[in-house]
Here is the input.
Amino acid sequence: MKHPLSVRLVTGAILVIITIVSRGVTESGFAQKKERPASAVELTCKIVGMPEDHPRSVWLIELCNAAGAPLRRALRMVGDTVHFKNLLPGIYRIYLSGKGGRRSVESIDLRPGADPQNMQFAKEVKVPRAAAQITGLHQVNVRALAVPKEARQHMQQSEKDQLDGNEAAMVKHLKEAIKIYPDYADAWNNLGAYYHRAGDYEQSIRSFTKVTELDPDFHVGWMNLGGSLLAIGRYQEALEANKKALKLGPDDAIANAQLGLSHYYLHDYAQARERFKRVLALDPAFPDAPQLFLAQIALGEGAFAEAMEYLHGYLELHPNAPDAAQARRTLAALSNGMIVALDVIRK
Here is the structure.
């Protein structure tokens, strides 16, 4: 299974925390405009506000691929629609950020079925409610003020390079930012994400460890450290890092999923079940398919009716996934009273 990583981007007055891919940059999620494939899909998002929101409040909406790599972003007001065209079929994550640290994320499966007419998708994206208390926001702002202007400029250019798919330039600007200001936690974090994507987990672990040393209250740094440790099978260390990430970000679906994975690979299935259930509550269409892990745990315990319920839930959200056929075969076998093993979990 792939382990997504998170990168914090600062754009103007809005602090945005997004996830970045743990796979190669070729999986950008967007088809090249001059080579539009016949299977390209479109997504229309409408921003739906809360009653207490000002009708002209501005929100940053970002479309990211399944593992969180940013693909496109736009500023829109409540009630506006955003059109994302020429998308490759797959799972995407939609991030919505506003003033005061308000932020939400949810996933959507844009894999069409056999019907070639079913290539357009629509989704209402509800703005998050105002948090009663925004933890860590003041600390982030104070730390950002300490970053020299030149280092911030290199950081901003690296973010632009990333969106343009120019990773060589991105890395160059990140290293320049760190050279100017060695305590730049955000730059270390983004550099660690690059090393993770490149499969250099020892380097990514060193980078993310530096992040946690510079900013022990930055939950994304702990989460990324946990992701890299998971990637090389250091499950006990990953467990500790992901526990810290979850304590600092209890409502983060990725933090919950990674802690669930840590428990799962350490064979603590009771704790894994608790975390995967929390992922379902936070983001039902989460790319790493917690339903399949929950079904596997249920099958191992002989709870076949429960396993069937999770498989039905998975197919409802991901009917055209590559492993949907195997999930259906497993359901059919269970319906016929057969004891089976679920082999669609991706390690």
